[in-house]
Every structure is written in C-alpha cells, then in structure tokens.
Amino acid sequence: QLQLVESGGGLVQPGGSLRLSCEASGFTLNNYAFGWFRQAPGKEREGVSCISSRGITIKYADPVKGRFAISRDNAKNMVYLQMNSLKPDDTAVYYCAADRNPSPVLCDVLSLARYEHWGQGTQVTVSS
What we know:
Elements: E1 3-7, E2 10-12, E3 18-25, E4 32-39, E5 46-51, E6 58-60, E7 68-73, E8 78-83, E9 92-100, E10 117-118, E11 122-126
Parallel strand pairs: 2-11
Antiparallel strand pairs: 1-3, 3-8, 4-5, 4-9, 5-6, 7-8, 9-10, 9-11
C-alpha cells in the first residue's frame, strides 16, 4: 500500500535550520513528482517546493526561495526538504505529496489537486 511518512519537524529558533524527510513505501519513486506543502493555522494549504521524477526540475514558492532546498534519493525512496534561515512565518504543518507524473522535467508547486498521495504531516514551529 502506497504510504508517505514525514519526519524531522520540531521547534526551532528564528534563523535556525531543520531538515524534513519523507519516506515513501509501496511504490517506485521513479514515476512520481514530489511536492512539499504547508498549512499554517487558519490558512489554506500552500505549495512550498516541488521536484520532478528525475530531479531535473525544481521549483520553489517565492517566500522560501534562497532558504529552502528540496532533494530526492530515488534509490532510498526518500525526499527531503532542507530549511535554513527559518522565520516565524514558516511555522506550519508540512506535508509531503506525490504526483504520478513520470515526466523527468515536470512538477507543479501550485496545484495541490495534482497530488494523489499525501503524508500525515509534520509540525514545524519557529519561535524564540
């Protein structure tokens, strides 16, 4: 059964770093684009970053450009989100999601509806 499990969230001070991990099981990552999304209290879920099936295309939402980095290791069935220079506005539940899209160059950071599979989320809190 296809499953995504996020980990690595926690409490961090402003300016700090966290690395989120998404472990996939029950399917082969080679045919999937992946995205990271987040949802803050009282706000809609929004895209943070995406990576195409072969890692050729990477996109970031404007608020995280230059601070976050997405990566994937298909051999290990893992997707990562390195988050640096964290700000209180980054506080949210972060979700990993998979889009069955074998294209090596396509990923979508805006359209949540494209993503068929979602993890349960991991809480990231940035506070002093």
